Amino acid sequence: MLIGQVVDALATPFVGYHSDHTDNYLSAKYGKRKLWHLFGTVCVLSSFPFIFMDCIGCSMAHKWAQMYYFASFILIFQIGWAAVQISHLSLIPELAEDPHVRTHLTAIRFGFTVFSNLFVYIITWIVLHMTGECDKEQVGPRDAWKFRHIVYIVLGVGTVASVLFHTFVSEGRGLRQQQPLIDYNDNNRVHFSIFRKGILYQVAGIYMSTRLVVNISQVFIPLYLHKTLGLAARSLAVIPLAMYLGSLLAAGAQRLAPRSFTRKLNYFLGSVCSLAAFIWIYLDTDYDYKVYYIYVVAVLIGFGGSQMLVTSLSLTADLVGDRTEASAFVYGLMSFTDKLSCGAVIAIIQLYADGASSDYYRSVLSLVCGGATVLGLICTLTTPKLTPDPEVNNDNNPSINTIEETGPPTDLL
Q1: Is residue 244 part of a domain?
Q2: pLDDT digits (tens, 9 = 90+) for 370-385
Q3: Each residue of 310-325: b (16+ CB within 10 Å) or e?
Q4: Is the residue at 289 inside a domain?
Q5: Total domain count for the chain?
Q6: From CA 250, how far away is CA 312, in angstroms rounded?
Q7: What is the pLDDT of residue 140?
Q8: From residue 44, how far is each of 49, 83, 163, 168, 335 by CA, in Å?
Q9: Does the structure show a pLDDT above 80 at 41?
Q10: C-alpha closest to that of 400 among 412, 383, 390
Q11: What gap in Å lies between CA 329 and CA 86, rounded to an integer?
Q12: Would you list the DSSP string of 4-34?
């Protein structure tokens, strides 16, 4: 897991930078974002199945040799996954200039992400039930073939979805046929000057905090249910499903939200839901909570985290504005903070988990996730509202559409 997180963290800004700089015959005809997405798809399809197979030709080798074997496929997979994610995200600023439309696209994208998670969840449940062994205690190394079948099904559906994407989605004439706004050397200057913009670090703080809330809660909710609350195995399956349903509600709410709903208001509403859930987790452990209210808490976590995540991604799109030459690099930087922080926090939590009391995971969810929620909310509320830079953009083409400030312009691009 740590290898994957580190590789993913390093790969995302690398892929983002080179995605922005790709300029050749194929990118001109096919689209540079789609070209990198295709590269990532091939990497994922060619490596992911081997992670779930036995070590080919080395099943009896030393475990360190097997680790290097599987690590090589994890390396290819994470690079491919970074290429898919960053190129797909960077398409949003290319496809829409209006910030409200970008929010809708981000919400739709996140909604399908939740549907994908539900699909994997349902397929796993069906396969385990059809084989007659769905009890958690019965799942072991001898059941590896079942998970290989799950992987093949998921890859098959993913391949079809990727083919449909590359067939019907176009980057548009604006990206592939427009005259470059700046030459290659100036493009390098723009990429590296990003680091001098304070707004970048605020948005990165929002995105990192939000990802901590979403990822840490998803990872440790099952352990909290099992070790702290002592719930039955059925609850370990149903309660995460309630979280996914809350996420779908948030995606729909963002899609239908009126234009008067600002980024800060959306993030504030999500933060309130998340904080209410984490405070509830810290304070309540009685019978009614375990039987009934835990489902309300799960929906609040799913809804609040998703609301925050969609808003943070929309803020990143606003950060890019209409100057999309560095959009993939910006998304790569955001993902870099996400992967490193989540990997480090999970490693630290697990380091102190051995021998801890049954309330350990309650404290993890309430304090770590609650603290990350507060941090993200503070960063959001203190983020300035930037006006377009007159030297870079005209009045009808702002670089950051929902941020303005009365002081000197501090826009990113």
Answers
A1: yes
A2: 999 999 999 999 988 6
A3: bbbbbbbbbbbbbbbb
A4: yes
A5: 1
A6: 13
A7: 62
A8: 9, 10, 14, 21, 18
A9: yes
A10: 412
A11: 8
A12: HHHHHHHHHHHHHHHHHH--SHHHHHH-HHH
Query: What is the rounded distance in angstroms from the CA atom of residue 40 to the CA atom of residue 87?
Result: 9
- Domain hosting residue 222, numbered range: 198-413
Instruction: Classify residue 124 as exposed, middle or buried by CB count within 10 Å of its CB (0-12, 13-18, 19+).
Output: middle
How many Cβ atoms from other residues are within 10 Å of residue 393's Cβ?
19
Q: Look-up: residue for tokens 């604006």?
A: 174
Q: Looking at per-residue confidence, does 160 or 14 come out higher? A: 160
**Would you say 239 and 296 are in contact if contact means Cβ atoms under 8 Å apart?**
no
In the numeric block, which tokens belong to residue 170? Answer: 């176009």
DSSP 168-205: H----HHHHHSPPSS-HHHHHHHHHHGGG-HHHHHHHH
Is position 178 within any domain?
no
Alpha carbons 73 and 79: distance in angstroms, whole number: 10
Please tell me whether residue 242 adopts helix, strand or coil conformation. Answer: helix
- Closest among 109, 94, 103 to 171, alpha carbons compared: 94
Integer angstrom CA distances of residue 131 from 7, 121, 138, 151? 35, 16, 12, 16
CB contact at 8 A, 220 and 364: yes
* Structure tokens given for 33: 């974002």
| CA-based torsion, 194, 195, 199, 200: positive or negative | positive
- Average pLDDT value for residue range 282-306: 91
Query: Exposure of 165 by Cβ count < 10 A (0-12 exposed, 13-18 middle, 19+ buried)?
Result: middle
Of 29-33, 71-75, 384-388, the range with the lowest mean pLDDT is 384-388
Residue 185 has pLDDT above 50, yes or no: no
Is 163 within a domain? no
CATH number at residue 351: 1.20.1250.20
When the pLDDT of each residue in the chain is averaged and rounded to a whole number, the result is: 81
